[in-house]
């Protein structure tokens, strides 16, 4: 028996070495952790349990029968993060370049199936050269099996992809189907066709970083939700992201004592918004002041900056926050920001995370490029997401809420539960000046001093119509609140509507305006 145990220990030690010391050193020289090191850092200490350690490929072509490595290029298993069970796979670049084989894919599919059965998040760490060419269509079939499980798990358990090396060709579609993508600058990239193919087909010369690096996807394409400087920083933030998410769509909402007084008044909010309606201010300042312990985890911070999305806690409860950013494009909604916010709202609704919306929106961004790009259909995605959502929804109009954008930003008419406004809020079809120019155009044209007349009628219109009290009289605004009380009113509102029961009509699925 002792001899058997010794042999078993040797086999396990050999498996843990992956592709061997030389390749492990090469991985470290690139500034990257190995597959197992990443999982050890990710999981609570000593909790990771590996499955299918000794699985090998079954390919007998192109000399592959001569080389077998236990694990076959991917490490799979489960462990704890913040004391909660998660399932994970980590591709091992030291073994066949982390390429996906038929056996390799079966390992990934197994833990994905287990995660859905028990209701636990799935974390995929991607560091792979792509499909294992020697296995041909069997490798492609493996990808498709993984994709199918991504789709079936969507909205059931959170799925997070960490891109910590190459991810190219068909391999990119599994991360694209997951809820969040995190990337590492300079060492990770994602693209369907690499720089060499691009040069051959389009004669464009680009580097891998320009084509599909972390910065590119976090700021220009919107594919990545986060970009970090190194593996350790990514893993640290991945753990933090998970702390805001439930284990599954059936898991009860957790309330964590944060030590931040729900009744805390914030006097500085009374002077946050400038008197001049054309002057911008930083909406992030408002968000960070009202959330628990000023701890706001922004998602897609570098992309479509005219809208802010992210997670925080209010009164200890995890919430999703959507807010217009007046510092960028005056907070207008455009194609990119509409799609960005719509996907986030739908994620929150999938997992019963209440949505808090802070509104300062002068409308949809005008322009030929926006119209030709389909702003009508893309803007409808955000409208659809808010209207479809059945989670608790609280909206606070901070300054401007004009035109169709007022409706879209979680208005009372889209089943908003509690809709508040600050006293300075302007809720109207358009800004006072534009409205006055249309309504009083004859009087302005006939006036001795058209400019002075325009100022006069604009001021009159603003005083009579561009305020929150018209909407409040109609019940579209539940209350006009003092800025300093925003935190308290939102938290009390969340407590009040925590037991909300709302369902949509039965359907196979909806037809989101894609």
CATH architectural category of the largest domain: Alpha-Beta Complex
Question: What is the number of domains?
Answer: 3
- In oligomeric terms, what are we looking at? single chain
> What is the number of beta strands?
17
- Dominant shape: elongated
CATH fold group of the largest domain: 2-enoyl-CoA Hydratase, Chain A, domain 1
> In this structure, how is the largest beta sheet organized?
8 strands, mixed
* Continuous helix count: 20
Mean pLDDT: 91
Can you give keywords for this protein?
single chain; alpha/beta; 2-enoyl-CoA Hydratase, Chain A, domain 1; 8-stranded mixed beta sheet; 7-stranded mixed beta sheet; elongated
Commentary on this structure:
The chain has 514 residues and is α/β, with parallel strands linked by helices. The chain has 3 domains: 2-243, 2-enoyl-CoA Hydratase, Chain A, domain 1; 267-429 and 467-496, 2-enoyl-CoA Hydratase, Chain A, domain 1, CATH 3.90.226.10; 432-465, no CATH class. It contains 20 helices and 17 strands. The protein has helices spanning 2-16, 21-29, 35-42, 102-118, 137-153, 173-177, 195-202, 208-212, 214-221, 231-243, 283-290, 335-350, 368-372, 375-388, 403-408, 432-439, 441-446, 450-464, 468-473, 486-496, and strands at residues 49-51, 74-81, 84-91, 122-126, 159-163, 166-168, 180-184, 189-191, 226-228, 297-299, 307-314, 317-324, 355-361, 393-402, 418-421, 426-428, 479-480. Strands 10, 11, 12, 13, 14, 15, 16 and 17 form an 8-stranded mixed sheet that branches. Strands 1-2-3-4-5-7-9 form a 7-stranded mixed sheet, sandwiched between helices. It has a two-stranded parallel sheet with strand order 6-8. A hairpin with a 7-residue loop joins strand 10 and strand 11 (307-314). Helix 12 (335-350) runs parallel beside helix 14 (375-388). The longest helix is centred in the N-terminal third of the chain and has 17 residues, at 102-118. The model has no long low-confidence stretch (mean pLDDT 91).
